[in-house]
Task: inverse folding
């Protein structure tokens, strides 16, 4: 059974969604409802901007990345929820929302409901479901505190973290709270659910500690837990695939755990910590061997690891931070949105940049596949939604990462520099020897004596 959930996180009060892997397994917290018609369709670079649509938000009221299914896309802002046609941007419906942090919604395929959170206090906070086609409210379940993560759906249950440091499980059928479990900190990214187990990471800003929990979905009892020994806040959301749990921690390590026992399968270092807006993305293409894990750190590093062993296959260093973006793996290409507005496409096999563009409207959040399109939300004031399609006339690049060492060129440059430095030192040494000879007392006397001899 595959995990089907959705993950978002808070950065400067803005909740943004993560991206996903379309190849093999949706290795983000978002599930197949987020894929729409993308499954079986590959949109490869180069891409071109097909449309740029206003989200309807204004000022600091920013939109989340949408969820897409059955020809409709739904996104959340701090004051409302809106649906639009993902191919044209035409508005379908919009409803008011009772404030709160902005997370992307989740889609319940069983009931056709869009599930989202609202409210900024104990009295107004709730999980809400509306009909995807019309926006009509279906149900709402109160929470004890404002949501800190997006909802994750597994069967008839919705799981999320709230500001009172509890994980909540809401029953969709009875429309009531099933259980809540206290954690050691705030859960700032949506839980993942796989094989009847909830996986979530809490962060305690006071102690700097992060803790990964595995909780039985039915009994709400702890199965296992893990906490790195050092300061480790600044985590990703959790991804689960093939019996393995993947997550990035603030101690600058990516870790893989056995989902059943919590045993650490491997741990691999990276250059930075992580944003909880991001998720590891797992892909199982044949060209990726036994499976590949893609992850982006907050410093702009994009990495590919062997999912089974943790061996780093490559990394690509982007020039700006990744606060809102997350890897999207599609057609063997890894897409990533950067804080400076750049959208980059890196070949999943080689790690070389194949295409990039830049939106001049603020940081780019998670990229969302929508049929034969890729949607991106740019977080300028009053977010804009950009739609990209394949451009058969566009150009590609073949660029190595700035962090990659060209050994041939490096050795050549080192050799040339060594010769220059050696010649410089040799010349300086000769001048020094000559000067010292002139300054020696014996050298002047000898000259005088020799000059006075008949």
Result:
């Amino acid at each position: 059974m595959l995990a089907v959930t959705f993950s978002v996180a808070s950065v400067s009060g803005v909740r943004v969604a993560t991206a996903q892997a379309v190849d093999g397994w949706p290795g983000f917290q978002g599930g197949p409802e987020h894929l729409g018609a993308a499954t079986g369709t590959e949109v490869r670079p180069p891409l071109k901007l097909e449309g740029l649509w206003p989200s309807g938000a204004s000022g600091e009221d920013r939109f989340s990345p949408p969820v897409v299914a059955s020809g409709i896309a739904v996104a959340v802002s701090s004051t409302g929820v809106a649906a639009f046609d993902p191919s044209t941007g035409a508005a379908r419906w919009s409803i008011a929302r009772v404030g709160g942090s902005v997370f992307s919604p989740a889609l319940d395929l069983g009931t056709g409901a869009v599930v989202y959170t609202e409210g900024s206090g104990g009295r107004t906070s709730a999980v809400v479901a509306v009909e995807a086609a019309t926006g009509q409210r279906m149900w709402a379940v109160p929470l004890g505190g404002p949501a800190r993560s997006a909802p994750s759906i597994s069967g008839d249950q919705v799981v999320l973290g709230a500001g009172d440091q509890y994980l909540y499980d809401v029953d969709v059928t009875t429309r009531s709270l099933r259980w809540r479990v206290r954690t050691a900190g705030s859960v700032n990214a949506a839980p993942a659910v796989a094989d009847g187990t909830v996986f979530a990471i809490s962060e305690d800003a006071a102690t700097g500690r992060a803790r990964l929990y595995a909780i039985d979905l039915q009994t709400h009892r702890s199965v296992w837990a893990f906490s790195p020994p050092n300061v480790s806040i600044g985590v990703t959301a959790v991804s689960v695939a093939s019996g393995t749990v993947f997550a990035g921690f603030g101690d600058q390590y990516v870790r893989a755990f056995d989902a059943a026992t919590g045993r650490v399968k491997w741990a691999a270092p990276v250059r930075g910590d992580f944003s909880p807006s991001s998720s590891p993305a797992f892909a199982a293409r044949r060209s990726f061997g036994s499976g590949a894990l893609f992850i982006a750190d907050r410093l702009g590093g994009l990495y590919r690891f062997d999912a089974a062993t943790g061996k780093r296959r490559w990394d690509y260093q982007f020039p700006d931070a990744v606060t809102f973006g997350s890897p999207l793996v599609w057609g063997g290409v890894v897409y990533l949105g950067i804080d400076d507005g750049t959208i980059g496409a890196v070949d999943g096999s080689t790690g070389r940049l194949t295409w990039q563009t830049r939106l001049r409207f603020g940081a780019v959040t998670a990229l969302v596949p929508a049929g034969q399109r890729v949607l991106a939300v740019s977080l300028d004031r009053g977010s804009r939604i950009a739609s990209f399609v394949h451009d058969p006339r566009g150009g590609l690049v073949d660029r190595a990462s700035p962090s990659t060492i060209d050994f041939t060129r490096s050795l050549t440059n080192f050799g040339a520099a060594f010769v220059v430095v050696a010649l410089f030192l040799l010349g300086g040494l000769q001048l020094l020897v000559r000067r010292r000879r002139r300054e020696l007392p014996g050298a002047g006397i000898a000259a005088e004596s020799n000059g006075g001899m008949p």
